[in-house]
Design goal:
By secondary structure, this protein is an all-alpha fold. Helix content is 69%, strand content 1%. It has three domains: 128 residues, Four Helix Bundle (Hemerythrin (Met), subunit A) (Up-down Bundle), CATH 1.20.120.1810; 62 residues, no CATH class; 87 residues, Winged helix-like DNA-binding domain superfamily/Winged helix DNA-binding domain (Arc Repressor Mutant, subunit A), CATH 1.10.10. The protein is built from 15 helices and two strands. Strands 1-2 form a two-stranded antiparallel ribbon. β1 and β2 form a beta hairpin. It is elongated and about 105 Å long. The termini are far apart. This is RNA polymerase sigma factor RpoH. Keywords: Cytoplasm, DNA-binding, Sigma factor, Stress response, Transcription, Transcription regulation. InterPro entries: RNA_pol_sigma-70_dom, RNA_pol_sigma70, RNA_pol_sigma70_r1_2, RNA_pol_sigma70_r2, RNA_pol_sigma70_r4, RNA_pol_sigma_r2, RNA_pol_sigma_r3/r4-like, RNA_pol_sigma_RpoH_proteobac.
Amino acid sequence: MRHAGLSRIDTAEPGRRTAAAVFNAYSSVIGRYDLLEREQEQQLARRWQETRDGDAANALVTSHLRLAAKVARSYRGYGLPFADLMAEANLGLVIAASRFEPDRNSRFSTYATWWIKAAIHEYILRSWSLVKIGTTAAQKKLFFRLRGEMRKAGQSGMARLTPDVAEAIATRLEVSAREVMEMDCRLHGDLSLNAWVGGDEQGTEWEALLVDEASDAETILADQDQMEHRTDALRIALNGLTGRERRVLEARRLAEHPPTLDQLARELSISSERVRQIEIRAFAKVRRAAIRATLEPAAARGQGRRAASSLSPPTRPDTISSVRRSHRRERSRGHDAELDFI
């Protein structure tokens, strides 16, 4: 379940006091353990590797609990419980102790820092949002470095990212601008569709502002039906032309790069003026045929409605008589009322 404070970068003031109290109490406990020298680290690590000595591993871990707490404290700005951050840091420390190789001549603190950070990173990525952020190298890099890069660019960490800044950050982090914008939206947290925006009096729910600019299904269907009908009408109109008329009309009016009158005249062995006349006549015929094909279905629908109304059962004579009698009674009542009034 997503933590309640994940939608904000800074926790509330009581949360800070609680985290500080937890850290101070924890620091007083782990401060009892002494730090180790390089030789002591090497000996404890070898004892663990060779004999699986639990006391050696415990001593190696407890001597670096202050390191784990220090690293965990640097991640308080993600709004997660500080106790959970320290627990994840200690888990990374234990993993580092179990995998540390003393023969590589490196300090255990340097090796453990990487495992501590990796454990904390995984915990934050799992807990940040209901929507999975991702675990690829590029997504992790964006998640933990985007706010810092935005501050370097002079933009507030809580402000929405602009396209220009996104391009600059994408170049520095070697990712796409789209990935930067998507991560910025996720870092701002989940927003309810019923969230109130715009003030108390003149505001509205965020859902009301999400307007789909695309046409609705009914409009799309009507446009498609109209386009199909026009295409059929044009096909019928073209079929009513002669071969020469159709060739001239298609070449002059329907081709992407129409030929000149002279080119068509040479092709058809006629004059340019004759080609122009054929074009005008063919276009007029197609226009009349297309209009006729468009109007005929409408007329057919109108005739169908009139035919349906003519098929309705006629009014019975006795029904007409009863209506007339009722009308006469109403008139009689009105006349009597007028006499009473006088």
